[in-house]
Amino acid sequence: MDTSVAGFFVTSLVIAMGLLSWARPSGRVSFFSSKENNLFLNRRNGKAGSKQTTLKELCRTATPARCDLNPLLFNGHLQTCWTTVKFDDVPVYYKRRIFEADSEAYKGHFAVDFVVEPYKAPKSAEATDAERKYTLPSGLPERTAMFSEDEFAALPSEDSKPMLVVLHGLSGGSHELYLRHVVHPLIADRGWEACVINSRGCAQTKISTGILYNARATWDVRQVVKWLRAAFPNRPLFGIGFSLGANILTNYLGEEGDACQLKAAVLCANPWNLEVSSVAMQSNFMGLKVYSKVMGANMKKLFEQHADEVVKNPRVDAEAIRNITYLHEFDRTLQCALWGYPTEGAYYRDASSIDSLLSIRIPFFVVQAEDDPIVTVKAVPFQEIAQTPYGVMMTTSWGGHLGWFEFGGGRWFVKPVTKFLNMMAHEIDLDTPPVVEKPEAVPGRTSSLQKDAAVKEPKPAAFSPMRQHCE
């Protein structure tokens, strides 16, 4: 068949299917949360009778009633694949600071990109890291420059603006479009501040040791949050994670528990149960031959960029890594070697965040698409979210993996995410701790039977959501 004819046929077919999908009803929006327990939040300057609200009410209010997406992208595969098309530009400017890890176990360096006012591309050697001390030979990402020492010294502030801490997805960085779609409207009027924690080796950064990152690499997040708390003592801190970054953030929140310094968090397209998601992805053609293959290639590229450091680990077989094709093969060959896991299954089970959500003790909002081809709906924590008053999960029947593209190029998920964050930051009294309706029913809490020495009945078994995670 002539290529022009074939192209016309494919284009016509897509348009025809898109036109037919106009008859498709709006994507379904569903909410999942504890039916027996509530988290009460105090409103700022609440009038009589409206001083309190619940997390459930706030999340529903933040979410549009309809999920109207681009009818030409009428399923999860099309929504997901469209994320690779760079058709629009969302200008967010960053200044980068390289942090030296304070952990003895996980030594190295990582980059944090702080959102700043727009600036002209600098030419100084310091701003561009001309010597490539911290940056890969291809240079810094677009609209990103290094802080000068004077600029960074002047960064701490006594202001009380809300600040968002952002974690990107697998092999991504602060440059990712899905991330900038959320950050841009928040910073548009300078009402928010934000920073992105780049995973080690990502976003054009060099690594200084053989340590990259994995799906439960929470140590750099913990260090940055501590630094932010000291540098900006009056700013309420919020967190958001995308895809693998959501998994890492969930693990961090669970590890911190009652001591968490963040006021609230948003978790977008979290893979939750990594083993279930991996097996599901391997079980169908698109999952294995498209998504797993592409992600495996991205991780191989990341390895090659840092191979000189990574191969210093005697357990790393560089040739075996170069021969892998799929993501699970990469995890089996490199991640298991780096982190001491016997199998990729052991790694997935340990790094999964599905149990960690039960230890979270701050309000959190989960956003998932049920047709996400990378995060199978079988991995989504429907049962777990029903056990905690601290979280609400909103799912849409349509949206793909970090897609949710609307007609015209906007992304629907930005609306509930930014409204939730703005409501938490500006309408809720953050100085008053949230109140759990039935604290004895929260997983991980010590039961009244265990506390009361006078009770003669045997102590009930208690589940510790974080117990299984290795140190």
Automatic annotation (TrEMBL):
The UniProt keywords, alphabetically, are: Hydrolase, Transferase
Q: Which reaction does it catalyse?
A: an aliphatic alcohol + acetyl-CoA = an acetyl ester + CoA
Functional summary from the UniProt entry:
Displays enzymatic activity both for medium-chain fatty acid (MCFA) ethyl ester synthesis and hydrolysis (esterase activity). MCFA are toxic for yeast and this enzyme could thus be involved in their detoxification by esterification.
Specify the protein name.
alcohol O-acetyltransferase
Which organism was this protein described from?
Emericella nidulans (strain FGSC A4 / ATCC 38163 / CBS 112.46 / NRRL 194 / M139)
Q: Which SUPFAM superfamilies does the entry mention?
A: alpha/beta-Hydrolases
Q: Where is this region: Disordered?
A: 440-471
- Molecular functions (GO terms): acetylesterase activity; alcohol O-acetyltransferase activity; monoacylglycerol lipase activity
One Pfam family cited in the UniProt record for this chain: Abhydrolase_1
Q: Does the keyword Transferase apply?
A: yes
The UniProt similarity line reads: Belongs to the AB hydrolase superfamily. AB hydrolase 4 family.
